Every structure is written in structure tokens, then in C-alpha cells.
Amino acid sequence: MGATETSGSPRFVPVTFEGLLAQKDSSTIPADEARASAHEATKDLASSRSREPTAKTRKPSARKEAIATRKQAAKEAAREKAARIAAAKEAAQTSGEPLDVLVLGVDRRPSSAEGESTRSDTMMLVRVTPATGEVKLLSVPRDLYVEVESGEKDRINTAFAYGGIEEARAVMEDLTGVEIDNYVIVDFEGFEKVIDAMGKVRVDVGKGVFPEHWNMGEGFERLNGHKALKYARYRGTPGADLDRIDHQQKLLAALRRQALRWDIVTRLPAIIRVTNENVNTDLGILQVIPLARALVLNGEDNKMTTAELEGHPKSLSDGEQVLVPDDEANEAILQDFRQ
Questions:
Q1: pLDDT tens digit sequence for 268-294
Q2: Nearest of 198, 197, 186 to residue 278 by alpha carbon
């Protein structure tokens, strides 16, 4: 049992095809023909089964899609983290040492003649540590009475008028004991344009601090470049130049916060163009890029510290008021800054 003998041939047809062959008289069908018919039937059956849709070929399950999405998101997060770590390492390797920059705001207007002697209205020493994003500001009162040339004493803000940036750098280095790496010089017009390019700046203007006709507002206000310049230069308060320094430091802190905003990237082309046109600096692109990257990566985690040198008021023989440096107090301030 298991096979049916076909007349006139020693070949056998499998029993499983008996039902198919029952439609014809097997005694009249050659074995080869019967086998071929059975073979075609088998192919048709297999083909029909292969065409049956399955859950796998119809559509992936929602659970599998969710798993794939999570895996992709995890990969992207890992790539972003690796990029941040690499950028931080690159910044540290590029400039592991602090960078000391002399920042001068000069009292030069568009109407100033080319080469005209100009005093610095603002003098700051800024120390940035690229590896950590730490920023220190050291402000110097412009009336501080120091030696600006050999044997010649005057207000420190006259150093720029005496011999330009090199003289200002030398005087600041003698005063602070800090070797200055680079400088940045901004005039009034350039300052206003940079603020406007950044989309104004939000600072606390206080209440009743400024002349009413300036329309500075009260409390926190968003100032355009023109009003920000007034905020930074105003001395008509009881603290005079010390209050002015406080305003300048608060303004720089606000600008730093503005620069760390996520949407500042949309303003970068305008900021870069305005900066190139209105800011004079010897900082090279190879210094600026890792410096900016470090501030962006670490800036939100590190506060900007501020300090200012001190002095005692004194009237000169010609009636001019100056500040004589308080050497003891300033040495403690400078030690903290240099650390």
C-alpha cells in the first residue's frame, strides 16, 4: 500500500495524487503524463500558499516601529553627546591656558578726524578660560591716576591718546601684573550697531536713575543700541564713575546671556558683519572659534564674576579730580583675578 500501479508502465504515482487522477481512468493515462500533471498541481498548490499574505509582510507591528524609533533617537542623542565632549576637549587642547583680553571703549565719534587723539572711555580686562567657559571681568576707573609714560602721571584713560593700543596695553600690564594676550577696541557707533544686530539687550535700568527725557523706562527694559550706550556711559549718579562701571558690567553680563540664547544663530550673519566693520581686534579666527564654542558649551554652567580696582579721590594742583590707586585693596583684588 502507498502506491498505485499504472498499466503498461513499471512507474508509480504517489497515493497522495489518487484523488486528482480519479477524474480520469488511470489505466488510459501514461505514467509520465500522470506524473507531470501531479507535478503541476503541486506547483500550483505551493504557489497559492506563497501568495497568502502574512502579518509580517502586510505591515510591521506598532510595537516594532516604536522600538525602532527609540533606537534611532538613542543613536542621535549619543552622537550629539559625543560631539559636545569632542568640542570641549578640542577647546581645552586649543587653549588650555586663560586668555586675557584688553577691552577698550573709545570716545570716538563718526565726526572724529582720522588719526585724531582719542581717550579710552572704558577700560576692562577680560579673562576667559576656554576649557571651562569661566569669565572674569576687571574694570578700571578711567580717572585712576597712574604713570602713563616714563615719569609722566595722568588718568589711565589718557594712555590710549598718548600711544594707542600699545601704550594702553603696557600701562594696563604694569598696573595689574597680567600679561595681555589680545585686545578689542569698540567705538560709540560700533557699540550701538552691535547691540542692534543682536536684537537689543535686556537690563535693569532701575527707577529714576536716568534723566526723564531719555525715556529709559523703569525696571527691566529692552534697550536698543543708542539707549544701551547711554546706560553704559551715564555718570550723573551719586556714585559717578563707580556706578557707571556697575552699569557696564551688568550690560556685558546681559549681552553674554543674549549671546547664549538658542535663537541668536539667526542673527549671526548680521552680528559678524557689523563686528567686522566696527570692532578693531587682533584676535584671530583660530582663537575666536574655540573661544566661542567653549562659552556656548559651558557658559550656562558658569557665572561671570566682576570686580573693579579701587582708589581714593584727590584734587590735583590744577583743580582736576583723580583717583589715587589703593594699592593694598587692589593687590587683593588682582590676586583673586589672576587665580
A1: 777 778 887 888 888 877 677 666 666
A2: 186
Residue 168 · residue 122 · CB < 8 Å = no
Identify the DSSP state of 303: P
Q: Which three cell numbers stand for residue 214?
A: 531719555
Radius of gyration of the chain (CA): 40
C-alpha cell at 76: 542621535
Residue 83 within a domain? no
Q: Which tens digit of pLDDT belongs to each residue from 72-100?
A: 888 888 777 766 665 555 554 455 678 89
Q: 28 falls in which pLDDT band (50, 70, 90)?
A: very low
* Contact (Cβ atoms closer than 8 angstroms) between residue 309 and residue 144: yes
Rounded Cα distance between 40 and 49, Å, is 14
Same domain, residue pair 106 and 236 = yes
Global model pTM greater than 0.90: no
Q: Residue 9 domain-assigned?
A: yes
* Residue 77 resides in a domain: no
Do 131 and 277 reside in the same domain of the chain?
A: yes
Residue 113 pLDDT class (50, 70, 90 cuts): very low
CA angle 18, 19, 21 (to 5 degrees): 65
Cα gap 107→191, rounded to integer Å: 11
Q: Does residue 295 contact residue 135 with C-beta atoms inside 8 Å? A: yes
Q: Are residues 35 and 144 in the same domain?
A: no
Looking at beta carbons, which pairs linking 109-117 to residues 24 or more positions away fall under 8 Å?
109/187, 109/188, 109/189, 110/189, 117/161
What DSSP string describes 75-138?
HHHHHHHHHHHHHHHHHHHH--S-EEEEEEEE---TTSPTT----EEEEEEEEEETTTTEEEEE
CA distance 124 to 186: 12
Element (H, E) at 204: strand 201-204
Q: Tell me the angle at which helices 241-259 and 225-233 cross, rounded to the nearest 10 degrees.
A: 140
- Does the pLDDT at position 153 exceed 60? yes
Q: Cell 525602532 belongs to which residue?
A: 68
Report the number of distinct structural domains present in the chain.
2
